[in-house]
Structures are given as structure tokens and as C-alpha cells.
Amino acid sequence: MKIKFCGAAREVTGSCHLITLDDNFRILLDCGLYQGGEEGENDGDGNPMKGFNEKWMFDPRDIDCLILSHAHIDHTGRVPKLVADGFRGKIYATHATRDLCSIMLLDSAKIQEYDAQYKNRKKPKAEAEVQPLYVVEDVRTALSQFVGYNYEQWFHVHPKVRVMYRDAGHILGSASVTLEIQEGERTIRLGFTGDIGRPNRPILGDPLPLPEADYIICESTYGDREHESAPGEVEHFVRVVHHTCVEKRGKLIIPAFSVGRTQEIVYMLDQLHRAGRLPKVPVYVDSPLAVNATEVFVNHPECFDHDLHQYMLEDDNPFGFNGLQYVRSVEGSKQLNTSQNPCIIISASGMMTAGRIRHHLLNGIENQRNTFLIVGYCSPNTPGGRLREGAQSLYIMGQNKQVLADVEVMDSFSAHGDRVEMLEVLKNQRASAKKIWLVHGTTDRQEKWRDYLLENGFAEVGIPGLGEEEVV
């Protein structure tokens, strides 16, 4: 059996790993979009990533099946291109992941189409037409190839390969993947963590350990640190809201991914509203995708944790309260940019690379009354990443803007476990795991996570580069 690391190698986005069995049956784990900055993207070793999304390290026609860990675009965003380029196999996912993909991939296709149209309007006439990575019709074809499964249910993708999903606690429907592979006289168990969530977070259940495995592909997003504790999180959030909306009379603008982060923030605001701790300012969720994703959340209560089920006995709509408005229309979003009234705006994307948040950034970053609250990981070359690092100016949509608004960072909202939380999920693997490969993280964080795992009793930990192959 061979493992080839075709994405998210020494980089945080573009998850994609190819498993080739001895009989040449090929299994793809995730098929994510690389999401980087606008100029000169690099991987964790400084190698250029330009063109990553257009190219493959394999022939899509040779892939026999695709297994998805969860719906985030950096794990699923190239699925329609895979299908358009010849993949005809089944796409395995949890039921909630399939439902989220049905809206997220359509949204992604529309962005691909719009971006291509925009570039074609701007390009010199002599240059070739820019083609979208994929179109809406490719998404519709891809969705017809999805097959859904529950957690804790073994199923076969090949006569000698069975697979099980287990709750990863990261976003709705997220899962770790365990593959049990029969090759000759030996049985190999390969675990893929996907993205490891966090214990004791709102809405979802806690991440569960994988079954004991021989080899593990493990994420490493926050392998170098520990997050702010939850009690401090709520008080910090309340202070930011009060300082921005009451004291400064400005806008609190929260870049947040439409799936997971937005619903968690809305749920917290719902609780603060019921407790009388939220100032009387309007709250806007300015993202059509977030509106649709919230409807998917409501349709999958089997993924909720005990606390949310109990809360819903008193409040049957944890994602809605007086003063909260979901904004679908472009005109409604534009009105938020011109309004001078204090408010809270939650808008996608979380890294501020696309979507309506770009317009809020353009129109709000030079206003000292405003605050931008960053609530999760942002790749270094993105606008969000540059704000996290203290940038004094940003080049946004063709304009150079000074950073005059306040910038706050709250990593406690992250849906990724920190090193202590990830170790808790992995600790049952100390005796069984012959080797762990670290993916989905920058090299500096992976090196610290590797050292932490070795200090805590793991035998061998590797950091593969893009395109590297391992034989097991």
C-alpha cells in the first residue's frame, strides 16, 4: 500500500491524500481547494502554490472512490473539478456532510464563474479567456455520485476495504475516517483524523478517538499552542461587543466561515440575548450561504450535543432572536456598508479572501469606531492573516487602506483542537501507531506538534512534503 500526499502538505488548505492498494485500487481522502492569498502564494517551505487548484498529482479517471472527512471547502472544494476531469466513482460522506456540500459546492461554483467573468472583463483582449475551475453543472453531476453513511457504521468501498466514520466534533457532520485494509495475509488499519474538533464546545458533540490504528494521517493546525479557555471567551466577547457598539458607537465586524463558526457565534449571541447581556444593537448575518447552512443545521439535530438539546427545550430556535436579521440580498448588504449605526455584522469568508466580508473590510477598516474580530485561523497571506499579524495597511480590491479600526483575535472560537485537545483524541494510539504523518498545518507548527507527540510517547512522526509518497 502506498500513500501520496497531494495537498495540505506543510500547508493548511487543499486537503488531498491518495491511497493506492497493492491491486491498484485507488482511494482519495478529501479533495480540497487551496485557499491562499492573492499574490504569490507559497506552501510551508516557500514553494509557489500558484496553479495548485488547476493541476492534479494523479489522473482523476484512475481514482476508484473518494472519501470525504467533512464539508469545508479546503477539504471538498475541488470535488466538482475532479468529476469534470473524469472521476466516475462514488463519493462517500456522512449525511450532514452531503447536505452541506450541496449548498457549499454550488456557492463555490458560482464564485468560480463570477471570478472568471470578472477577470475576462479586465484582461487585455489579446489574452486567452479565463475559464472557471468548474461550473454549477459540474456540481450537480458530482452530487449525484454522493453516498451517505452514519457515524459508527462499517461499510465496504472495496471487497478488501471497509471504512467507518466517527464524530470528529469539528463542524456538522465532520468525521475521522478509519480504513481497515486486507492485503494478503495482513490487515492494515489506517486512520485519517480529518480536522479534529474541540471538547466542550457549543452545538456539537465532543471529538471521539479513532479506533486503534497502525498508521495515522493527522492534522496539525494548532499543534503549537493551547487555546483560551471557554469561560474567558464569553467575557472577552462581551467586552469587545460593549467597547465597540456602546462605547465607540461603531460596528463589530466578524469575519466567519458560513458553516460552523457563524452558527456558534449566533448561538452564543442567542444565549447572551436571553440572559439580558447583549446591548440593544441589531445583529446581521450577512451571507446567503450562512442562511442556507443554518437551515441544514436545524435539519440535523442528531449531531447536536446534550447541552443544545436541553437548551432547545426552552428555546426551540437557538439560531434566532429578536434583533437578529439574516441578510440574503445584495442591496441589504450594501446598506450595512453605508449605515453609521452601531451593530454587529457576521459575514463570510473567515479569512476575508472572498464574499461580502471583502466589502465590509474595504468600507470599515479605516473607521476608528469599528472593530474587526478574528475568530479563527487565517492563512498568513490572506487579509485576515495579515490583520492577525498586525498589518498597518491592506491592499483591498484595488485600493490601499490604512488599518485604523481595532483588531481583536479570539482563537478560542476555533473549531480546531489545540495540542492538548488533539493529544487527548490520539492518546489511545500510543501502543498501536507505527507512524503518524502530520498534514494540514504550516511547517513551524508541525515541527512543534511532532516534538510534542514524541515527548508524549509516540514512536515515529513524519512531516511529508507535497507530492511525497510513503510505502507501508
Structure write-up:
With 472 residues, this protein is α/β, with parallel strands linked by helices. It folds into two domains: 281 residues, Ribonuclease Z/Hydroxyacylglutathione hydrolase-like (Metallo-beta-lactamase, Chain A, 4-Layer Sandwich); 184 residues, Rossmann fold (3-Layer(aba) Sandwich), CATH 3.40.50.10890. It has 13 helices and 22 strands. The strands form four sheets. The chain has a seven-stranded mixed β-sheet. The protein starts with a strand and ends with a strand. About 3% of the residues have low confidence.
Summarize the structure.
The protein is an alpha/beta fold.
Mean pLDDT: 92
Count of DSSP H/I helices: 13
Shape: globular
Query: What fraction of the residues are assigned to beta strands by DSSP?
Result: 15-25%
Q: Would you identify the CATH H-level superfamily of the largest domain? A: Ribonuclease Z/Hydroxyacylglutathione hydrolase-like
Strands, total number: 22
N-C termini distance: 6 Å
Strand order of the largest sheet: 6-5-4-3-2-1-22
Number of domains: 2
What would you say the CATH architecture of the largest domain is? 4-Layer Sandwich
Major beta-sheet overview:
7 strands, mixed
CATH class of the largest domain: Alpha Beta
Query: Helicity level, as a percent range?
Result: 25-40%
Rg over C-alpha atoms, rounded to the nearest angstrom: 22 Å
Secondary structure category: alpha/beta
Low-confidence stretches: 37-48
